[in-house]
Amino acid sequence: MTVTVLLDEAGAEVLAAACSEYKPGRELPLVEKLRRRYDATLVTTAVTQAALRHRAVAKFGADASRMFFTPDGLEQATRTTVGRHRAVRLATTMPGASVVDLGCGIGGDLISAARAGLRVTGVERDPETAATARANLAALGLTGEVVVGEAESTDLTPYDVVFADPARRADGRRVFDHNAYSPPWTFVLDLLERTACVKVAPGIPHDAIPAGVEAEWISDSGEVKEAALWSGRLYGGTPRRATLLPSEATVSDAPEAEAGPVGQYIYEPDGAVVRAGLVTAVATAVDGWLLDPRIAYVTAAKYVATPLASAYEVVEELPYKEKALRSWVRSQDIGTLEIKKRGVDLDPAQLRKKLAPKGSASATLIITRIGRDAVAYSCRRLADHR
Predict the structure, then answer these.
(1) pTM to 2 decimals?
(2) Among the residues of the chain, which ranges form H helices?
(3) CA-based radius of gyration for the chain
(4) CB distance 267 to 309 below 8 Å
(5) Phi and psi at residue 377, to the nearest 5°
(6) φ, ψ at 96 (rounded to 5°)
(7) How far apart are CA 377 and CA 296, in angstroms?
(8) pLDDT confidence of 254, banded at 50, 70, 90?
(9) What is the pLDDT of residues 175-195, one digit of tens each?
């Protein structure tokens, strides 16, 4: 059954009962209880929806309690914080624009765009998913249209802006090669000839991005979520940008930076800054330099709070040898050990297991490469300002 069976009075009653009593891991007893009062198939659909709403809170916050989901639709939906950022940028540049969302899924981006004052139309090939998107706009009191159709055959001429989020999964597995997107990359390139915003995976190669298109890498609370390609009237005047949520800090310029010996502090640039190739912007922000010209760590003599990076105070340099590191763990009574690494081939989880921290103290171990040599630094993590 699709979500549409939950939209009438009878379905809404079952859904309300399922949501009010839902507890993770207790789905089967809840189904058995509700089937004493309601249709068995309807109960199964309602309890499934209650479970999806519970999971959706992480992406949609309070809205999740009123929305409808499919398992795949929730998995692939844009987090509200990211969708809102994108919609606000679009609405600021083109207030009141008409936007068509090709492959709108359950409507996460439609919701953000409609709330930003844009006129929205969603196109979705799967009828059940389209019905879910339509129900979500209605549930949140938003205006917009959702039609069943194929992205490639949609007439784009009535719309000011095209938004697209190509599918990046095949046979249930995530696709990393942009040439394997659906709709295909050739279709995306055609879209970028007009005023468009296309959501792509953050691993998109820089050389795949056409000239005159801005690539904006976006992270949320330190986790890289996506890259957005902006073209036509939405082009921001720079080929690469990193935006960090929730602070909304942004950087688009990468000045030259020298490399030098470790200072009192090490800065780990946010993943969006790294993906955008803007690591040297962190060096400028903290009056620092690179540890190695090919490694994304910045070091400095003083501490400067910045939303662009996490900061660590260097306590001491250690030999990168397992025996020496194990001895350090024991001598410092370390029980909670965070291991950060770049430029070296190691599994932090496996190394942590070998070092066997069992004490009461906490520490961060940064392992990286300088030139051809691997080095290790005992550090103290400082407050995160992202």
Answers:
(1) 0.90
(2) 9-21, 27-34, 40-60, 71-76, 80-93, 108-115, 127-139, 185-191, 271-275, 279-285, 322-331, 348-355
(3) 24
(4) yes
(5) -130, 130
(6) 70, 15
(7) 15
(8) confident
(9) 667 877 888 999 999 999 999
